[in-house]
Structures are given as C-alpha cells and as structure tokens.
Amino acid sequence: MEKLDILVMAAHPDDAELSCSGTIAAQIAAGYKVGILDFTQGEMGTRGTPAIRLQEAQKSAEILGLNMRENLGFRDVFFQDDEEHQKAIARVIRKYKPEMVLANAISDRHPDHGKGGALASKACFVSGLRMLETELEGKNQEPWRPKVIYHYIQNNHINPDIVLDITAFWEKKMASIKAFKSQFHDPDSKEPESFISAPGFLDFIEARAKEYGHKIGVKYGEGFTVERVPGVKNLFDLV
Q1: What pLDDT was estimated at residue 190?
Q2: Cβ atoms 156, 105 nearer than 8 A
Q3: Rounded mean pLDDT, 123-129
Q4: Residue 1 pLDDT > 90
Q5: Which of 99, 173, 187, 198 has the greatest number of beta carbons closer than 10 A?
Q6: Coil, helix or strand at residue 71
C-alpha cells in the first residue's frame, strides 16, 4: 500500500479543488504524495448526478496527478459525526498513513463543511488509538495518527493562519475545478441554477485567491487555519 504524505479530506467532490487544489498541485510538484478522500458523492446537489460527479472527480485527479482518490459513499447532508463514520475514515488513515491531513473549513455556508472538518479531526485522533480495532481486507490495522491537520477555507471568509503561494499553479487549479463541468456555469445547461453555478462564482474564487496572495506579497494564495501553533526550525522558512 502506497504511503501518502498528505491526505485531503472533503465532504463533497470539488470541495478540495475549489479550496486547496493549488496547494495540492504545489506539493505534488515538490515530490510529495497526495491523495483525496471524498466523504460523499454530492448526491443532494442541485446539478449533476453521483455518477457524473465521480467521473468528474477522476478527471480532476488525473489533472492534479493524485496518488489516490477514494469516495466513502457517506450520505450527502445526512452523514453524522459518530463512531461509525469516524471508524470508516480511520480505516483509510491507517491504510495510507499520511503525515498531514487537509480538511474542510471549521465553519462554512454549507453545514456539511464544518461538520466534515470536525469529523476529519476526530477521525485523525481515534485512528491513533491503540485500542480501536479496524480491519482492511481481513487484516487488523495498526494505529496511525497524522502529525498535523490544517483546515482549508471555503466560502465564508475566515482569517487564515497560514497562506501558501499557489501562483505557479493557478492554471492547474482552475483546470481541476473546471473538470467538474456539471457544477459550474454553462449557458447551454438546462439544469436549475445553483449557488456555485452562478456566472460570477469562479470570479469569486479568483478574488479570494488574490486576497490571500496579497497578504503574503504574491499573486495567488490559499489560506488555512491550524489546530495547534505551527513551528519552524528556521525563521527563513517563512515567506
């Protein structure tokens, strides 16, 4: 089983692309192994179908060069932060043993985002408990706890604790987003308009990236919040 450096967790297919795909592309270019774990198929969304969303997610994975992408098939909107769901995620954490997890925003317009972020955090903790028993393909799994969790920022404005320069990866980020063709503005679509299919939504995504980039003196950035104070060994590691 291929070990990951970073596991990105997302309540819905396209959450990761909209919020942190520039970071994903940057880390992959730096030689790190990155995967995405989608919790649901986004079946309660206004546009598209679960089958279409899965196809789009695979196309985006190819654009980004992911090492893995899996979908847990949790119920969109109705999944819970409980033992069953935490253990399902813990199995994946123990399978890929990531050093770092990127998870949904701590709070957001869509209730699944804040719920998904909290669920990811709890799953990372319980995955490290020696007494929690999980199996994969009939074999007992060893405990594993990622070293750090960062929460990417989604629709609602949250002041970031960390901003990563994604300027060199902006075009790849946009290509990964546009892989989810069913979800965004298409003048020929006969489906109902949704919050993210409005013509100006992708302009908002770019404006947010410019705002965060401006904070650190670059063109485009992606912001994250932390669960613990980050540390560095060299002050020159800071931009």
Answers
A1: 85
A2: yes
A3: 98
A4: no
A5: 173
A6: strand
Backbone angles phi, psi at 219, to 5 degrees: -75, -45
Q: Is 31 left (phi over 0), alpha (psi -120 to 50) or beta?
A: left
58: enclosing H helix or E strand: helix 50-64
Token readout for 39 is 């919790």
Return the closest-CA partner of residue 36 out of 107, 108, 116, 111.
116
* Cβ within 8 Å of residue 25, ≥6 positions away: 64, 65, 166, 169, 172, 173, 176
Residues in the chain: 239
Per-residue model confidence as pLDDT tens digits over 24-81:
999 999 999 999 999 999 999 999 999 999 999 999 999 999 999 999 999 999 999 9
Integer Rg of the chain from CA:
17
Please state at what angle helix 15-29 crosses helix 170-178, rounded to 10 degrees.
140
* pTM greater than 0.85 (yes/no): yes
CA distances 215 to 61, 91, 155, 211, 222, Å, are 29, 38, 18, 7, 10
C-alpha count within 13 angstroms, C-beta hemisphere, residue 104: 26
Coil/strand/helix, residue 33: coil
Instruction: Kindly state the tokens that stand for 82.
Output: 């409980």
In sign, the C-alpha dihedral spanning 118, 54, 175, 2 is positive
**Alpha-carbon distances of 53 from 12, 90, 183, rounded to whole Å:** 9, 24, 9
Per DSSP, the three-state class of 69 is: strand
Residue 93 · residue 62 · CB < 8 Å: no
